[in-house]
């Protein structure tokens, strides 16, 4: 299945009233791969609104915001994702987002 077919199928689920955090996560991931960070951000924001404990969605939301150049929103997503992951006992996801947050806060490296 191509990425565009996957996106069309997931959008059809939403149109049929079968919206959910997993559907939005799948759309966000596919849009990031396209790459379309603005669309990815929109779907991932909906995913975490539907399930605030969805740590993987928070992590991808941070990435989408970073790719859009919105460092403040990316940092917020990572912080909220760390809290969600920690609350679920998902230590690996929390550690990954902590690394991404530190890199973001350090800013671009000078050469």
Keywords:
mainly alpha; Serine Threonine Protein Phosphatase 5, Tetratricopeptide repeat; 6 helices
Fold and architecture overview:
This protein has about 110 residues and is mainly α. The chain has a single domain, classed as Serine Threonine Protein Phosphatase 5, Tetratricopeptide repeat (Alpha Horseshoe). The protein contains 6 helices and no strands. It has helices at about 5-15, 20-35, 35-50, 55-70, 70-90, 90-105. Helix 3 (about 35-50) packs antiparallel against helix 4 and helix 4 (about 55-70) packs antiparallel against helix 5. The chain is globular. It starts with a helix and ends in a 5-residue tail after the last helix.
Number of domains: 1
Helical content class:
over 70%
Q: What is the terminal separation in angstroms?
A: 41 Å
Order of helices and strands: HHHHHH
Tell me the major beta sheet. Answer: none
CATH fold naming: Serine Threonine Protein Phosphatase 5, Tetratricopeptide repeat
Overall pLDDT score? 94
Outline, from the CA principal axes?
globular
Low-confidence stretches: none
Number of strands: 0
Strand content: under 5%
- Quickly name the level 1 CATH class: Mainly Alpha
Q: Name the CATH architecture.
A: Alpha Horseshoe
Secondary-structure class: mainly alpha
Rg measurement, Å: 14 Å
Report the CATH superfamily.
Tetratricopeptide repeat domain
């Amino acid at each position: 299945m191509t990425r565009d077919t996957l996106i069309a199928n997931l959008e059809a689920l939403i149109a049929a009233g079968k919206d959910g955090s997993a559907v939005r996560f799948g759309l966000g991931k596919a849009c990031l791969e396209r790459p379309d960070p603005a669309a990815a951000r929109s779907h991932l924001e909906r995913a975490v609104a539907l399930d605030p404990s969805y740590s993987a969605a928070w992590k991808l939301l941070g990435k989408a915001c970073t790719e859009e150049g919105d460092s403040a929103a990316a940092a917020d997503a990572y912080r909220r994702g760390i809290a969600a992951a920690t609350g679920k006992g998902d230590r690996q996801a929390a550690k990954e987002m902590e690394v991404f947050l530190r890199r973001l806060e350090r800013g671009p490296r000078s050469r």
